[in-house]
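ok trying this again, last paste got cut off
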Amino acid sequence: MKDPVTGLFGRQQFLHILDSEVSEAATHQVSLALLVLDIRQFGRINIKHGYAAGDSTLQAVAKVLADVCREGDQIARVGDDQFALILPAILNSGHAELAAHKIQRLLDVPVYLDHDTIHCAADIGIALYPEHARGADALLAAADEAQRRARSSAQPFCVAQHHPDDEASEHWDIEMALEDAIQKSEMRVYFQPKISLVTGKPTGAEALVRWENPFRGIVSPDEFIPIAETTGFIRPLTEWMLNSALRLASEWEHPWGRQEVSVNVPTRILERADFTDMVISARELWRSEDSRLCIEILEQSFIENIDEVFAKLKGLQEQDVKISIDDFGTGYSSLSYFRDIPADELKIDRSFVAGLLKERDNANIVELIVDLAHRFGLQVVAEGVEDVQTLSALKKLHCDIAQGYFIARPMPAEAYHQWLANYRGINATGAISTSGAETASRLTTG
């Protein structure tokens, strides 16, 4: 199926073509080059100029690649803002580098629209068969890695380094399986409770994604989220998480009043022009008087584009969506934006909470964050609470909310529903008390 915007091959077709081209190169013992190209700040083009301008930019890039191609070369659009170019039967890496230079030179020409002029730039990664990899899976992984190095080093392009084939193959297998994970109902929402340190009552839960693959078992988010971000899968995954978490939260039965359900939003989704619409659409579809949506974003998400991101977050606040700044204190914290920060909550990173009792500096940092947040009308959540002593220390520092293994580990939706209904508070020893705790535990582990 061709990409409707550019008319190029789509991702699935590209994967089959790459596999075939690598097999052909192996049969005839010739070299092959793969170029992976990512448009810089494509999300900002959509935001500033609109979707039509974004589509025009994609079409302009597709034309540039077509102009560079020889007969027999293959082009595809493999992600929201990512393209791939296969150059069969090249003599050496110099030919691939010449192609990258030509692409960069042609992209220097601005894209003219009715009322706007767009300057387009790209980061390019190059990988060669058989020099960098001997399989299609490893070759794509090597080109992706080279493209990321080009982006981080501000170079026009980078050539791949050697990668062990087994590691790259693992990357490829996960990528292929991710394509159908939602359709095959392999994704799961787990919930980790949060409790008030003032009242001892539950305030809600953070929704966390888990992938239950029939062949791999439980796949850690640390393994598949970075791959989802580079392949364009992160958008449908985030949309699925929003809708699934809100749907499940609307079914909670408990005596604890309105509960919050927190969903993490990656930086790349926050930058998209349709971010606000995606959040509000999900919230309206699963609206419940007993639950409130909380969006968790990393502090680094708004460092470069404060005005644009703040405008989006303020718009969500006006729609009764809570905003939480996750992993606070680990990024580029600046007092300059605190006066106008469109947030309701700060989450203290677990690295500070874990060392709270042993490191005086960590205790000072936690105390400072709590005091600063309260002065600006923000709640504070401490994540990574793993023992009663840390819980007590946080309460003495006037932290508002706690989250961590001491309270409860992340658990499947059914187990969390049971936990919430059976929760009885913190007993005299500081332990979490529930009725039917064995049932909840069995649901969590079984």
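PB: full thing came through this time. The first strand starts at residue 31 and ends at 39.
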